[in-house]
Structures are given as C-alpha cells and as structure tokens.
Amino acid sequence: MKIVLSGIKPSGELNIGGYGGALHQFLALQQQQFECLFFVPDLHAVTVAQDPNVLRKRTMDIAAYYIAAGIDPKKATIFIQSHVSAHAELGWLMETQAHFGELSRMTQFKEKSNGKDTVSSALFTYPVLMAADILLYQATHVPVGDDQKQHLEMTRDLAARFNQRFRPVFTVPEPIIQQLGSRIMSLDDPAKKMSKSNPNANSYILFQDSPEVIHKKIAKAVTDSEGVVRCDWAHKPAVSNLIEIYAVFADESVETIESRYKGVGYGAFKRDLADVIAAKLQPIQRRYSEIVESDELIRILKDGAVKAAETANRTLLQAKQAMGFVTWAQ
Ligand code: AQP
Question: What is the structure's pLDDT at 104?
Fold first, then answer.
C-alpha cells in the first residue's frame, strides 16, 4: 500500500505558492493508487508567533480550501494536527534521536532566524516534528516542494537511525518532487520563494484575491527587458516563474505556452495569465465560502482526526515499546 501524507501550514493567508507546491499535487495523488492523509499542521504554525484568533480562522480556512480545491474526504483523511496528540508525543521521542549538529544545518532555520533577535526553540526543532508527522502514518511517499527536500532527508535519517538503534518500527519515506510548481517564486523578486509571511502583498496572489486584484498584481510582476516569453531559469527567472505559474494553473506544458506567445510581448501574456489564475480560483472561492463555517467541515475534521489517531496511536505505541517505555497495552 502506498501511503502519502502532506499539509499546508496555517501560518498566513493561502497563496498560489501553496497551490503549485501542494494542492495541485494533492489532487493528482488522490487520483492515483495512494492512501492520502492531508492535515493542517497547526503545531508547525506556532513555531513563530501567531495571533490566537487568527490562527483558529486560518486553520479552518486551510481545511476548507483542501475541500474547495477538490480533495475528497471520502478518498482522503483530512484532519488538524493538534487533534491527534500522538504528533506532539512522537515529536518529543524523535527529538531524543536528532542531533543538534544536523538541525543546525537546516537552511530553512537559517533563513527564518536570520536577522531576528530571538526565535523559538520549536522553530529549530521543527524538522523533527515534521519527521514525527510522517512516520506516525508509515507514509511511503511525501510530496515536497523544493524547500522541503532537506527536511525530508532528515526524516529519512531519523527513521533509519531509530530502526537500527531499537527495532524496525518506521517506514523510510520517499520524496515525490514534482517538476512543475515545486518552486513558485515571489512576483516582486524571483530569487525568493512566494511565501505567506512576505510583508509585500504584491509578492503573492492570495486564494481570496478578486480577478481585478490578480490582474493588478500580475501587471506589476517583475519581468526583464528582453520581451520574449521564454522559459530560461538561469537568465530569465522572473519570466520563467510566470510561465510555470501559467503551466500549473492552465494544466499546459511550458512549450505550449512559449509557442502561443511567440512574437507577442509581455502585456498580452500577463493579461492571459491573470485570467487563467482567476478562472481556476473563482470556483474554489465559491466552494470555500459554502464550506468554511459549515457543520459539514467540522464533521469531516472530527472524523478525520478519529481515523488518523487510530493509525498514529498504533505507531506511537510501537515506538514507545521499542524504546523501553512501560506500556500496559500488548
Ligand atoms: N512558493 C512555493 N512554491 C512551491 N511550493 C511551495 N510550498 C509553499 N510555498 C511554495 C509548498 O507547499 C507545501 C506546504 O507549505 P507550507 O505552507 O506548510 O510551508 P512553507 O513552505 O513554509 O510556506 P510559506 O508560504 O513559506 O509559509 P511561511 O512564510 O509561513 O513559512 C510545502 O510542501 C511547501 O514546500
């Protein structure tokens, strides 16, 4: 059985980076022979300060967007991470297996802590909790955006280390790295990932943005002076980023897009790109509004947590027994 686990942190308003790197791929996996678990990693969101009222809303928002985008709760288990306490517990156990040195090498920690006077110790140990998330469900595969590759490598190392030191408890997961959309960059700076926490609202397109706002943001997106719609990440990163976004949202190949806009300037390309994004987001926005405050969503999340906890508690028990904890269960 192939098992896949992934999630989007409720650390900010969802933007199209999360569509390219996550939701687009979740939808594809749901169609394939995978048992899918999609969760809302709220314990990860609080590694940086969150306003409690906003966190609650964003957590429900992400869950609503999963469903609005087409994740089917009959096919996938959808739940909130903090509703399954085994995540925090296995996270602690795995911290005892993680080395300070390997955590210090995580580039995301370096980026996120850079220039800050203080950061939480949870931000530092975040990759260990991520490992626990994955290992609890014996996930065989994890879809990862480009920026998460290093964390998944650490999950693999921790699983192998634990299995070797105690006994084989965990499946060592494989990454699934998609070609298109695995790295959607900021609209104002193609050297930076499009991020929820970027203070510049013109750097991203939100799932909630209206067609008018999408047109304005795409019109402002940086390009280059060549005026040719051609994908070349080394020399034309800004235009290449826009072409990739187009490809993901229109489900077309980069080549098809390049040939459609041959001899046409950036103006027409950008107008069409904004239309393509708006056309994809509008039905998602409608479904989101229907479901976000609904009893249906609460029921899906409660059922999901019960189902997830069964598997998670089983794995946690095996890990505790392997480590020598006193457990009364057989
Ligand atoms: N810009 C992106 N391009 C491609 N993939 C992306 N992902 C996120 N942004 C992009 C991928 O989506 C999955 C869920 O990510 P996440 O939201 O849980 O965490 P993140 O990568 O830390 O997202 P942000 O937007 O950068 O949040 P903040 O600013 O709060 O830290 C992951 O697989 C991620 O790779």
Answer: 95
Cα 96 to ligand 1 centre (Å): 27
Write the CATH number of the domain with boundaries 2-183+294-323.
3.40.50.620
Between the CA of 168 and the centroid of ligand 1 the distance, in Å, is 31
Q: What is the pLDDT of residue 178?
A: 78
The beta strands (E) that lie in the chain are given as: 2-7, 34-40, 76-80, 141-143, 174-176
| Selection from 197, 231, 284 nearest residue 23 by Cα | 284
Known catalytic residue: 193?
yes
Q: Is the CB of residue 21 below 6 angstroms from any atom belonging to ligand 1?
A: yes
Architecture, CATH, for domain 201-289: Orthogonal Bundle (1.10)
Residue of 196, 205, 245 with the most ligand 1 atoms within 8 Å of its CB, for mutation: 196
Helix (H, G, I), strand (E, B) or coil at 194: coil
Ordered by start, the domain boundaries in the chain are 2-183+294-323, 201-289
What is the per-residue pLDDT for 4? 97
**Does the pLDDT at position 226 exceed 70?**
yes
